[in-house]
Amino acid sequence: MNMKRSFFDRLSGSTASGDAFDAFDDESPVTTTPPRKEVPVRGGAASRPAPLDDDMPESEGQLPVDVHQTASDIIIRAFVAGVRPDELSISISRDMVEISGSRMEREQVSGPDYFTRELFWGSFSRTILLPQEVDVEASSASAKDGLLTIILPKLDKAKQTKLRVKAG
């Protein structure tokens, strides 16, 4: 009699105990990920995984950001080192900001000449949903020392204006 191994037995690699209790079906196929390439690190026997540039398709990177608020503004900060201001595109609506751009590698180095490769090169983007509506016209953006800062003044919905009715 050929019994199926339980999910736990397959996961742990242990041998079947003879129990027929298995809470999981074998309907889903098992997939394995290929082992990562190991690159020796100078000065020690430890090894560090190298990126799988050859195996991965070209994809757009996601720009990491910090978003915080003050009493009157929402402030977004992102590191854009190596990106010229004319290579950045910032689109602002009342409730959303989209930052996109491209960071191009200026020097081509062949794969075997790398010891470590962690920097991201290529196009990137990030869409940030804002917690409050902002004044699009009064917003500003600046970049200094590789740090992009976007200042978005909040719209004050509680602010009321009285209108005077004109006769005639």
Description:
With 168 residues, the protein is mainly beta. It has a domain at 61-153: Sandwich (Immunoglobulin-like). It contains one helix and ten strands, in the order H-E-E-E-E-E-E-E-E-E-E. The chain has one helix at residues 7-12; strands at residues 38-40, 47-49, 61-62, 65-69, 73-79, 88-92, 96-103, 122-129, 140-144, 147-153. The strands form three sheets. A four-stranded mixed beta sheet has the order 3-8-7-6, with no helix packed on it. A four-stranded antiparallel beta sheet has the order 4-5-10-9, with no helix packed on it. Strands 1-2 form a two-stranded antiparallel ribbon.
Short description:
This protein is mostly beta strands.
**Helicity level:** under 10%
* Named CATH architecture of the domain at 61-153: Sandwich
What class, by secondary structure content? mainly beta
How would you characterize the largest beta sheet? 4 strands, mixed
